Give the backbone structure.
Amino acid sequence: MAIDEVVPRFSLKLDEQLCFSLYSASRLITAAYRPLLNEIGLTYPQYVTMLVLWERAPVSMRGLGEELGLDYGTLTPLVKRLESAGLVRRRRRVDDERAVDVELTEDGRALRDRAIGIPDRIAELMGLSDRQFATLQKGLQALADNVEASLSP
């Protein structure tokens, strides 16, 4: 081997790719959510949107997009579908007509009670202890933060 030849740290084997493990886990977990969310009439993107709103509505469209990592073109039809279902309403701000807030309706607030057990059911399905769950969640958040920081100019 030449002195200036670089030896890679990681192989090109599929089962050794972190990206593929994340992709597979994400796909399977989203599939596990599907029947639970069908029971309450939501898709997974709608569910995570409602999670933000249940936590801190009203939220501006801009804030909602930032929280979920969605652009306006993806978020707008998602919120429109939630609005058509009677779960949220959009309101232009009086102080800035360009800004739109999303707030929960009574039905949207009531849906929270039907969704309350979903995280526990998913955690049970994952088969992780509370400690393993917390460790994995913190590790994935650190991973996301690191990648986001490396992609930012």
The first strand starts at residue 59 and ends at 60. The mean pLDDT is 94. Helices lie at 18-40, 44-56, 61-68, 72-84, 106-115, 118-126, 130-151. The beta strands are 59-60, 88-92, 100-104.
